[in-house]
Amino acid sequence: MNTTAASAGAQLTLRAVVLGIVLAALLAAANTYLGLFAGLTIASAIPAAVVSMAVLKLLGGGSILENNIVQTGGSAGSSTATGVIFTAPALVMLGFWSDYRYGWIFAFAALGGVLGVLFTVPLRRALIVEQKLRFPEGVAAAEVLRAGADPARGAKLLAITAAAGAALKLCAANGLRLIPDAAAVAGFAGKGLMYLGTNLSPAILGVGYICGINAGIVMIAGSLIAWDIALPIYSAFHDVAGASAADAAYLIWSKQIRYIGVGTMVIGGLWTLYSIRGAMISSVRAALSATTRLSNGGSDHREQDLPLRWMLIGVAVCTVPLFFMYHEVVGSYLVSIPMTLAMIVLAFVFCAVSAYMTGLVGGSNDPVSGMIIATILAGSALLLVLTGGNTAVGPVAAVMIGAAVCCALCLASDNLQDLKCGHLVGATPWRQQLMLAIGAVTSALVLAPVLNLLARAYGIGVADAAHPNPLIAPQAVLISSVSKALFGGSLPWNMVIAGVLIGVVVIVIDEWLRRGAHGFRAPVLAVAVGVYLPLDVMMPIFLGGVLSWLVNRRNRDNSGESLASRGMLFAAGLIAGESLMGVLIAFPIVLSGRADVLSLPAAWQLPAWAGQLLGLAVMAVIGAWLYRAATRSK
Predict the structure, then answer these.
(1) Cross-strand partners of 195
(2) pLDDT grade for 363, boundaries at 50, 70 and 90
């Protein structure tokens, strides 16, 4: 089917670019908070598409291709934020920065993100057109765009649920303090310490709904291994004097038990790379082969990628500033040149792998954590040789390699999902590639201020006197710990080794499941995330997954309206509302210098037990509301 030149041109309009930029910035801020708070981020193409359709309808209507450009730019916000929050806080934890440096954060996010877009340009035809990989999020976004006859309804659902998520965040511990952040019970069973709790966050419930039942079960299994097996065993032989049961549980978990997750994560990352070795080889071959024959696609706008010469020029332009940044840190060309070359090679390889894997299993199952751990290990091995094991420079340089690679591979995954969507609706690839690069650069502009704001209001990763309960930033804490350990730092190696052994057992179980016809899997990296994150965070993810399973069972025979999309929009609204409110609440906290600036008078606050019960009741109401919205067509 031929398309007219006019229809090809009505895509990268000024209003589409502006709306895409605004959405990218907002979604970057929201996912920055969410990722630091919960350790997980979500793809945002579908909410961006719904908002785009509603806004452009108010402005006189927009074509499906114009809406596609908006969701392409907007979706870059979550991917760019993911690349930064997984790595940049580690540089503060390592003591290299005292705060989040604007120029450095912008450079890593923008240059790494654009590299991710450029490295996947040759993969579009190979993976989408020739191999016809699934790219499930891209297909889902295309279905939303095609079914957008009444975008106002979807936008209304998003707005209502976002308002609900924001209101509940305002009522929580950093706001009015009407309800606590978590409900938990802890105590001793003999000499062993037991703990059970759940975070009272609608956003995390929404994340669990989007992740689904398989991921929820596997993650909660990892948490139960840590909190209800390892913790009681450890506490039976180690006294924690002067602390309550709940405080003692968190202290032991943070200082010892969570490092089981480090061992599981490392073995999981290595196993993941081994298990996808065929996919790695295929994806890199596809990239190299496609690069040699990349052209402008002739007269059909649907096959026109960025030209090869511009792709190569763009890679060179992005690489040069990164080289000078590395050189400023290490102060030696004998180190900075190999660092830059290693970053380029690792970014190219892992962008190809990330794009290939997201095409096979979707972005939610793309093993980003494993690839980042592999990058840190490879970079550290190189730097151990180049720096002679310099403990001051080595860990920082390794994290800097990882920062650029992480930003690149996150954008690569997002790029191919968006291009799959564009392929299905008849978009022009080079316009989407350009818009994604614009979205990445726009997102990069807001990340450092948001990180500094959150760090001053809540703290990030490391508890101190001013911030006893910081945002957990688990991936950055993990990367900081691993990079220091590789350069002579200390870790509780008995826990790390235990984690490796647990990882081996999980791998064996997962291989058995893979060979059967169960449909259920136990990916080792998901178990590792469960061990490494607090049980409070994993519980609502599990409950959200159960809710998703119940909804899918109810809708199994439903042939009418796409109720699944309504459930996803509901969950996305909860996430966006709570996350953006978390950023907004930080402003009065920072400006006043008081963590309790918004809290209700003491006489109006509930006793701890009553607040927990109220929070549990509210979560139950939210869950019932989500189930109703996702299973009723009217």
Answers:
(1) 186
(2) low
Contact 437, 72 (CB under 8 A): no
Residue 10 predicted with pLDDT over 90 = no
Q: What 3-state class would DSSP assign to 553?
A: helix
Q: How confident is the model at residue 532 (pLDDT cuts 50, 70, 90)?
A: confident
Q: Which residues contact 317 (CB under 8 A, 6 or more apart)?
A: none
Question: Of 627, 597, 578, 633, which is closest to residue 161 (Cα–Cα)?
Answer: 578
Cβ neighbours of residue 561 closer than 8 Å, sequence gap 6 or more: 633
Cβ pair 422, 554 in contact under 8 A: no
Q: pTM (2 decimals)?
A: 0.90
Cα–Cα dist 158/247, whole Å: 37
- Integer Cα distance of 54 and 168 in angstroms: 25
For residues 544 and 206, give the distance between their C-alpha atoms in angstroms, rounded to a whole number.
6
Could you count the other beta carbons within 10 Å of the beta carbon of residue 150? 12
pLDDT computed for residue 112 by the predictor:
95
Here the tokens at position 583 are 């950023």
For the chain, give the longest Cα–Cα distance: 76
- Tell me whether residue 460 is exposed, middle or buried, using C-beta atoms within 10 angstroms of its C-beta: 0 to 12, 13 to 18, 19 or more: buried
Q: What angle do CA 33, 581, 246 make, to 5 degrees?
A: 65
Is the Cβ–Cβ distance between 30 and 576 less than 8 Å? yes
The whole-angstrom distance between residue 103's C-alpha and the CA centroid of its chain comes to 22
Neighbour-count burial for 196-229, b at 16+ CB within 10 Å, e otherwise: bbbbbbbbbbbbbbbbbbbbbbbbbbbbbbbbbe
Q: In this structure, are residues 474 and 40 in contact, taking their beta carbons and an 8 Å threshold? A: no
Contact 399, 85 (CB under 8 A): no
How many angstroms separate the Cα of 600 from the Cα of each of 466, 589, 606, 615? 20, 14, 10, 16
